[in-house]
UniProtKB/TrEMBL annotation:
One of its GO terms (molecular function) is DNA-binding transcription factor activity. Keywords: DNA-binding, Transcription, Transcription regulation. InterPro entries: GAF-like_dom_sf, HTH_MetabolicPath_Reg, Tscrpt_reg_IclR_C, Tscrpt_reg_IclR_N, WH-like_DNA-bd_sf, WH_DNA-bd_sf. This is Transcriptional regulator, IclR family protein. The keyword Transcription applies. SMART domains: HTH_ICLR. Residues 12-74 form the HTH iclR-type domain. It comes from Oceaniovalibus guishaninsula JLT2003. Gene3D superfamilies: 3.30.450.40, Winged helix-like DNA-binding domain superfamily/Winged helix DNA-binding domain. Residues 75-260 form the IclR-ED domain. The keyword DNA-binding applies.
Amino acid sequence: MMILPPDDPRFATTLARGLSVLRAFRPTDDGLSNAEIAQRTGLPKSTVSRLTWTLGTLGYLTQSPRDDRFRPGPTLVAVGQVASASLSFLVPAQELMARLADETGALVVLAVRDGTRLVLIRTWRPARVSSIWLEVGQPVALRGFSSARAFVAAATPAELARVAAEFPASEAEPFGPMPQVRNRAGAELTARGFVFTPGGPDAAAPYNAVSVPFRGPNLPEPVVFTCGALPDAADAVRMETEIGPRLAEAVRSLERLTGQPSTLSRREA
């Protein structure tokens, strides 16, 4: 659902609503109807109809004559490619993370914040491993998961305040008790170089995962690299003792290659 920020004359509400329509799509969708988009965004169906017609006219959405459902259009794909190309750190990250995935057998993903959630924008799949999960575009809640804890640990107080302002008033503490989560995850990052969150049926996340934040050139907030695997005890041990340190070293190498300071050194700015 779209969350509007506090009143500000500079805020273009119509633009925000149009972007919320684009953000309603998920990788597993085979098109969305106006009614489904309205349900996901919380916008009136009449408003959604006008927005989808406009976005379709501009090429950001396409509408199939077969089922009248909307899908991302070529203009949106082109904009995404331009945005991806502007993230220069992805060039050296490609080799580092692909090697890590192949050598550990774990899926490696890169997540960025998108409103009140994190979204995966890159995945590196290990070769010769059949149990692969998570796709580009997959949303991740800003709570519970190792990627969320890494983001909270690395973000500055001003960045976290900006994120918290986007949540409904009923979710005043979107990350849980903020100081405790930030301090605990920050201490874990300082001590080990990564955060680890166990997974399982009774845990916040369905799988064991380790995460390390990174601040790329010209990025307004930290992004997060994560390695995830299946929720069993042996896997959890390996995550902490082998894969977590390997991921931390890969991100440190990326910082050196891109000339970036340690992410944690900027968290109090």
